[in-house]
Amino acid sequence: MNMTPPPAPPQVAAGTPAAPAPVAGLAYHRLSHADPKSRWFSPLLEGLLGVAVFIGLNLIISVALAVTIMGSGLSLQDVATNRSVIMEHPALFALTFLSLIAIVPSLFLARLVVGPKPWGLIHSVAGRLRRSLLLPYLGLSFAVYGIYYAVMLALSGESLPEYRYFQPPQVEFWVYVAMMLLLVPVQCYAEELAYRGFMMQMLGRWLRTPWLPIVLPAVLFMLSHAYDPWGQSTILAMGIYAGFLCWYTGGLEASISLHVANNVILMLLSMVAGLDPFASEGVTPLDALQGIALEGVYVVLACLIFNARVRRGEVSRETQPLKVDN
Question: Distance (Å, rounded) from C-alpha 179 to C-alpha 312?
Answer without folding.
Answer: 38
